[in-house]
Design a protein that fits this description.
Layout: H1 4-18, E1 25-28, H2 38-41, E2 45-52, E3 55-61, E4 71-76, E5 81-86, E6 99-103, E7 106-112, E8 118-122, H3 125-128, H4 142-149, H5 156-160, H6 171-181, H7 194-213, E9 254-258, E10 261-265
Antiparallel strand pairs: 1-6, 2-3, 3-4, 4-8, 5-7, 6-7, 9-10
The structure holds zinc ion (ZN).
């Protein structure tokens, strides 16, 4: 499932292609999307594309300035969603997309094999924004993290994946951030010292920024908008490395299950 760095990669790739283009048609091929108000989106100009948590959000402005408020098309890829840009109009062999955004100079297809992805048209940016704090936003400070953690009795690894707290982390980066911060995934939020919270905060920014630099990771279902492979995989410290040696201390990486999800960690350097 794409997480914050993968969505950021998609947004960075799409923005220069789509900015200033008119959305000629929004084609829907899935009955689950039938409530989308296509007419409110078509004919508008893409003003900017931003990432909010794990969502890519397209700001669609009225074609003439002063002719009304923009609307925001929010795309959440969830499990298997992919946004593939094509200038030739060619589509991928096999399954059709769930939706297609047609522009003058190409089209953007939304493929989503398991159909959990969410496409929404919002009347304000607030409506498009997720509930949790964005871990790359300026207001994500050590103090903000400390107050979010509060007296949480939840284990820190599943806590990091709660989208109502922090928005954008999933299974891969939650494991990687805890490895980087040298914090055991089964610790509770309430048990973390102030120094550990500072480490966790710093590791969050460090891991996410580095992953963005390398265009994230690509496993079976996720592809970026060009269908390319991110290269952060080879830099992963623990994720899917059970049985292999820790890059820091040479101990054997372990895998445990927390809330039905695999967690990977080093039993020696994460305390
Ligand atoms: Zn280690």
């Amino acid at each position: 499932m794409p997480e914050l760095p993968e969505v950021q990669t998609i947004v960075a790739q799409l923005a220069p292609k789509l900015r200033g283009q008119v959305l000629r048609r929004l084609e829907l091929f899935d009955a689950k999307l039938k409530d989308l108000d296509v007419g409110a989106a078509e004919g508008r100009v893409v003003r900017r594309i931003t990432r909010l948590g794990k969502r890519a959000v397209f700001e669609l402005a009225a074609p003439k300035s002063g002719a009304g408020n923009p609307v925001w098309l929010s795309v959440h890829l969830r499990m298997t969603g992919r946004l593939i840009w094509s200038e030739s109009g060619a589509t991928e062999a096999g399954r059709p997309p769930r939706a297609r955004l047609v522009f003058d100079r190409g089209s953007l297809s939304f493929f989503d094999m398991r159909r959990f992805g969410i496409l929404r048209l919002c009347r304000s940016l607030d409506e498009a924004a997720p509930m949790g704090l964005d871990p790359l936003a300026g207001d994500f400070t050590p103090q903000a993290l400390e107050s979010l953690l509060g007296s949480s009795r939840q284990e820190i690894k599943p806590w990091l994946m709660r989208q109502d707290r922090l928005s954008g982390l999933g299974n891969i980066y939650a494991s990687e951030i805890l490895f980087s911060a040298r914090i055991h995934p089964a610790r509770t939020g309430a048990s973390l010292t102030r120094a550990e919270i500072r480490r966790l905060h710093a590791a969050t920014g460090r891991v996410l920024r580095r992953a963005i630099k390398y265009c994230g990771v690509t496993f079976s279902d996720f592809q970026d908008s060009r269908g390319c492979i991110g290269s952060y995989q080879r830099l992963l410290g623990v994720y899917r490395r059970a049985g292999e040696r820790c890059r820091r201390c040479r101990a054997t990486i372990e895998r445990v299950v927390q809330q039905q999800r695999s967690t990977f960690f080093c039993p020696r350097c994460q305390a």
